[in-house]
Structure formats: structure tokens, C-alpha cells
Amino acid sequence: MHLKFYKYQGAGNDFILVDNRQNAANQLSKEVIEKLCDRRFGVGADGLMLLEGLEGYDFKMVYYNADGNEGSMCGNGGRCIVAFAKHLGIITKTTKFLATDGPHHAKISEDGKWVSLQMIDVKEITRDGEAYVLNTGSPHYVKLAADLANKDVYSEGHAIRNNATYKTDGINVNFTEKDGDSYFVRTFERGVENETYACGTGVTAVALAMAKHNQQFGTISTPIKVLGGKLNIRFDHNGDEFSNIFLEGPAELVFEGEIDL
Fold first, then answer.
1. Which of 74, 80, 122, 173 is labelled catalytic?
2. Shared-domain flag, residues 173 and 103
3. Which of 31, 117, 170, 247 could form a disulfide with 190 if both were Cys (CB 3.0 to 4.6 A apart)?
């Protein structure tokens, strides 16, 4: 079987995308997806997405982690699949699609390289010691850190993700440090089981957690720096919940090809 695929990246978070509107990729096994995402024996990616047709929506997003398991919402993946849908001619400027955490709206620039993706509302942020824990479509742990550029994110993130509290379901672990008017963020992602260059639901979680930490209310815009570039999170915070949350940043087609499965 030959699989036609497209490789996209959003701030260094990279994905394999497949147009599955004709159900050509329904039989992809966990092992095949894991191999496709392998950076030495496959295409190489943080995850794989299927774009599928669905009545009432422009498309449906089906997301798999690099370990081959179906994943929860991926924010940068959501932005990349919007760019992919524009590339395929499914959408032009705006879209409504369905992901695992529900419907999402998005806008895309005319050149198809900048996507503003609406995320789910967030009503609850809890604490685990000094860290904040919340769900922005995927579960996240957010901790302030000093000298983040030199932190061993893999070791500390792996330890937190696999501790007694989070081992069963897993959690994404984000470390953040104030950097001028923005925040610098590094993330250890479950499913990838390593640090990634960016995490969309992760930077969203950081922006919300820092608004709570700093007792910020109203309409807020938070610039974020990650290893792969720059993102922006804007949202409303009324003290009880976060709404009108948008994850904004680049999405770029890197290359396309075919692979023999």
C-alpha cells in the first residue's frame, strides 16, 4: 500500500497529515503509525493526523501521538490541519471542524501560513504543590522555572509524567520563565515521551496558568516563545473561567511525498 502524505510544522511541532476523505488510511495500525513518526525509520513527526469528512463540519481531525496511540487535542496540530484543509481547497479563510475535544473554529491568513485557532473554554485550574494543573484539550502541568534554557527538561518532565499521580493517564509537563513581555516555555509531551519544540495546548495552559498566578482579568494577550519559534495566546478571564481562547501562530507545509507501507 502506498500512502500519500504531507509534512507540516507549526513552530517546530511537526506532523504527518493524510487526506482520508476517501477512507484510504482507515487500516493504519498502531505499529505503522509509530514507524511513520520515527525519525530514523519513517517520515519523522511528533504525531500523525487524518483529515476526514463529516457532515455539519468542514472536516474532522483524527490525531495520533508518535507512539501510535490515538491522542487528545493537539493545538499546533489543529493549526496545521487548518492550513492543510486550505491547501486541499476545502476552506478559504474560516473553518469549523471537529476534534476529539469538540468543535473548533479557526481563521487562516490569505497566504495560508498563520492560523488563529479557538480552543475550549477552561473553568478549572488546580494546584499540585507550586505547579498548576489544567486541561486545555489535553491535560497539562505548569511550573515556573529559573534558568529554563539550561534545565534538563527531559529528566524532570519524564519524572513528573511518570510519578504516582500521573503515570496511568499521563500528563504533559510545561516549564515556564518570564522573558520580558512574554513567557519562554519548554514542554515534555506524553505520547511523544520527550521534549518537543512546541506544544499548542501546552502554551495555552501556560498562558492561562500565569494569568491566574498574576491575578490578571479581562481580555489578555500573552506572547509565548518556544524552541521552535513564537506563538500568541489571547483570551478572556472573568475570575471564574477562561473563554474566547485563541492559539495563534505559524503553520507551514514542509514537503509532501509517498511511502510504501
1. 74
2. no
3. 170
Looking at the fold, whether 131 and 112 belong to one and the same domain comes out as no
Q: What is the mean pLDDT of the chain?
A: 97
| Residue 171 Cα to chain centre, angstroms | 13
Catalytic residue among 199, 207, 208, 245: 199
Instruction: Specify the number of domains making up the chain.
Output: 2
Same domain, 144 and 103: no
Give yes or no: residues 145 and 102 share one domain.
Answer: no
CA angle 186, 189, 194 (to 5 degrees): 85
Note down the domain range covering 239.
125-248
Q: Which three cell numbers stand for residue 18?
A: 493524510
As a dihedral over the C-alpha atoms of residue 118, residue 154, residue 167, residue 123, rounded to 10 degrees, the angle is -30
CA distance 66 to 44: 9
Residue 143, pLDDT score: 98
Distance CA 226, CA 220 (A): 19
113 pLDDT band (50/70/90 cuts)? very high
Reported as a single tens digit per residue, the pLDDT across 187-218 is 999 999 999 999 999 999 999 999 999 999 99
Residue 27 pLDDT class (50, 70, 90 cuts): confident
Average pLDDT (163-182) is 97
199 is catalytic: yes
Least confident span in 20-29, 56-65, 177-186: 20-29
**CA dist 124 → 70, 96, 127, 134 (Å):** 25, 25, 10, 7
Instruction: Based on the fold, state whether residues 104 and 135 are members of the same structural domain.
Output: no
